[in-house]
């Protein structure tokens, strides 16, 4: 009987403890989540130097010029929202004045930019596939240094050294270059006009380059004068080759087809889409600007209690950077993070007063639109309830 009474009281004690535990958990205050935090609108002043999704009826002449010295039979145009370089190649007129290697490429080049601390991202597709006849046939994403003519570039296609060297020797003074053999995706640089180098080993063609676009990235770090290139494979960025020194004096973008063959009458089709040239994310943070609108005075600098801004990836799982508003209502948020390799990106901005989250703003990347290094994002704090 004594044992029974002890067991009875022990069971009652357990029930009380369990009940008290659940009551205590329910009594704790709930943390704020996206459903309870007010949403804010933000206005972007884009920091990208150049961006084009080629969705117009024709090539945007404010952004691009056609390469003038081109192989006959190949045209450059906008087709179904893509920059298209296609046609049937014909033999060049070797009697034409000024015939040189430039006749063997066709495409577009951008205006000149003084900035060299930049990244170039663009999508590449070759519906006609890699040419089977001897010579070279490549899609070329070219980050030119203008003067001197030094550049890093990403290429897809094939390059046959013997045939290329022979044809160049016939049409130009570039026949003595050390042209390599390459097929697939690869990274190359030219330092000045005399040395052309394939940087590292190429990556074999993926097999779907006819059907879908592949995103490529060329980075140049002005502080180290090192260029790097990447290819997106199955949503993972992999490096092409290795870093390579190259000195660049300015910047222009070239998107082109290089077609070097002594045979003619072959169909060509190379496509580019969503071209983005933007500042180096290592040294160009996003600038968040807060102001307050007064109906009589217009937009005024925010001078209320200091706020903290935090920048996350779009899902809110990874904190990218954070900072406090200065006395002018500005905060600088670095975007150099392993989460973000190429831009634009989707992001979330969260604003705090001490430990209280006041509001959230979201940025959704779509094509050439989204968050870039060097952006300015403006927030009217009249959207936010701030306690003084």
Report on the structure:
The chain has two helices and 24 strands. By secondary structure, the protein is mainly β. It has two domains: 43-47 and 283-383, Carboxypeptidase-like, regulatory domain (Immunoglobulin-like); 63-279, Jelly Rolls, CATH 2.60.120. The strands form four sheets. Strands 2, 4, 5, 7, 12, 13, 14 and 16 form an eight-stranded antiparallel β-sheet that branches. A hairpin with a 2-residue loop joins strand 13 (226-233) and strand 14 (236-245). The longest helix is centred in the N-terminal third of the chain and has 26 residues, at 2-27. The protein is elongated and about 75 Å long.
Structural topology:
Blueprint: H1 2-27, E1 43-45, E2 50-52, E3 64-66, E4 74-79, E5 82-88, E6 105-110, E7 118-125, E8 136-144, E9 151-159, H2 161-171, E10 182-191, E11 195-198, E12 214-221, E13 226-233, E14 236-245, E15 252-260, E16 267-279, E17 286-294, E18 298-301, E19 308-313, E20 319-324, E21 330-333, E22 347-353, E23 356-363, E24 376-380
Parallel strand pairs: 17-24
Antiparallel strand pairs: 1-24, 2-16, 3-6, 4-5, 5-16, 6-15, 7-12, 7-16, 8-9, 8-15, 9-10, 10-11, 12-13, 13-14, 17-18, 17-21, 19-20, 19-22, 22-23
Q: Tell me the overall shape.
A: elongated
Distance between the termini: 67 Å
The CATH architecture designation of the largest domain is: Sandwich
Low-confidence stretches: 1-31, 97-103
Order of helices and strands: HEEEEEEEEEHEEEEEEEEEEEEEEE
Mean pLDDT metric: 84
Taking all Cα atoms into account, the compactness measure Rg is: 28 Å
What is the overall number of helices? 2
Share of helical residues: under 10%
Give the class-level CATH name of the largest domain.
Mainly Beta
Main beta-sheet strand count, sense and barrel state:
8 strands, antiparallel
Regarding quaternary structure, what we see is single chain
CATH topology of the largest domain, by name, is: Jelly Rolls
């Amino acid at each position: 009987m004594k044992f029974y009474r002890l067991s009875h009281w022990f069971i009652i004690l357990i029930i009380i403890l369990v009940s008290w535990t659940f009551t205590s958990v329910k009594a704790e205050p709930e943390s704020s989540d996206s459903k309870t935090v007010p949403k804010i609108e933000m206005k972007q002043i884009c920091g990208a130097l150049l961006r084009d999704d080629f969705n117009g009826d024709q090539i945007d002449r404010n952004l691009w010029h056609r390469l003038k010295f081109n192989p006959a039979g190949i045209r450059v145009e906008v087709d179904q929202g893509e920059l298209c370089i296609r046609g049937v190649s014909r033999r060049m007129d070797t009697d034409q004045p000024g015939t040189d290697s430039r006749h063997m490429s066709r495409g577009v080049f951008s205006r000149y930019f003084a900035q060299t601390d930049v990244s170039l991202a663009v999508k590449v597709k070759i519906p006609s596939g890699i040419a089977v006849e001897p010579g070279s046939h490549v899609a070329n994403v070219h980050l030119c240094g203008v003067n001197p003519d030094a550049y890093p570039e990403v290429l897809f296609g094939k390059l046959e050294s013997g045939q290329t060297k022979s044809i160049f020797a016939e049409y130009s003074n570039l026949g003595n270059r050390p042209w390599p053999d390459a097929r697939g995706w690869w990274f190359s640089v030219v330092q000045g006009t005399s040395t052309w180098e394939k940087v590292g080993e190429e990556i074999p063609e993926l097999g779907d380059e006819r059907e879908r676009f592949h995103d490529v990235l060329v980075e140049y770090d002005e502080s180290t004068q090192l260029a790097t290139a990447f290819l997106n494979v199955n949503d993972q960025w992999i490096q092409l080759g290795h870093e390579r020194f190259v000195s660049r004096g300015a910047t222009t973008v070239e998107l082109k087809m290089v077609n070097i063959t002594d045979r003619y009458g072959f169909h060509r089709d190379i496509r580019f889409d969503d071209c983005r040239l933007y500042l180096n994310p290592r040294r160009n943070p996003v600038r968040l600007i807060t102001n307050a609108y007064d109906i009589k005075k217009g937009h005024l600098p925010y001078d209320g209690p200091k706020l903290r801004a935090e920048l996350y990836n779009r899902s809110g799982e990874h904190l990218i950077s954070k900072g406090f508003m200065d006395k002018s209502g500005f905060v600088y948020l670095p975007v150099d993070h392993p989460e973000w390799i190429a831009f634009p990106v989707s992001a979330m901005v969260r604003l705090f007063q001490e430990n209280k989250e006041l509001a959230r703003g979201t940025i959704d990347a779509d094509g050439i639109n989204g968050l870039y290094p060097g952006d300015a994002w403006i927030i009217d704090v009249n959207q936010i309830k701030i306690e003084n």
